[in-house]
């Protein structure tokens, strides 16, 4: 396990380095610069700004300077927000995105997995049909539609939830449901399909023939194997949800990472784009690593080779 973990950590560092390099090259390949869209900006002022942020240096010098800072954990300074570093922006915005993300993940697992198991156990029954109809609708409706509906009906018409922000607990209801809607439906469908496949296996029939109770067979034997594809999906899903959704954050006026990321793309704020991209990639890579470790916990038959 130790050797495997060490190899994966080295692989993760190399992957992160490649992502940082590719992102840097792509940002510098975009025509124009972070100050070309400024109005009434004289050539002298633009030149001074380029010198201040070392953007007039050769590309390889800019690259090595950025990578040196990255090794120290310094993601650079925003070109558009004066005196604000990318580290500060992430530190200020990530908690809001993470709070909603954690609640959404809990909602997805608490609702999606039990509904999928129930649907599989009640295959071709009225319960199964109702769950699958709802899950199919949930997969097809985008998060911004769910968010807009919740905000309009429950926020403006009924006034059951705040019109925006997360200053009180009711403010979390709308964004969490909107963010979790698709994944709840997807996890339900995925759990049902894998559970049905596992229930048809010979070892399940053997366990039942040996006199084991129905719920023991399901809980101890069937569910663990059925959860492996779900775990594979949930890992990257958590990374995506924790870093925030711009659409959901925009609808519910939440100051999360998604808002600043989209604004930085529009403003060509290279350091914020690269910083948030690298931060998201790091979370994604770590979650994939955790998923690999979780395989062995869900199913002891899976061994991680050093």
TrEMBL record:
Q: Give the bilayer topology.
A: Multi-pass membrane protein
Q: SUPFAM superfamilies, per this entry?
A: MetI-like
List the transmembrane segments: 9-30, 100-118, 130-152, 172-191, 226-252, 272-298
User: What CDD domains does the entry give?
Assistant: TM_PBP2
- Gene Ontology CC terms: plasma membrane
Transmembrane keyword on record: yes
Q: Which Gene3D superfamilies match?
A: MetI-like
Q: Which family does the record assign?
A: Belongs to the binding-protein-dependent transport system permease family.
Q: What is this protein called?
A: ABC transporter permease
* Organism in which the protein naturally occurs: Candidatus Cellulosilyticum pullistercoris
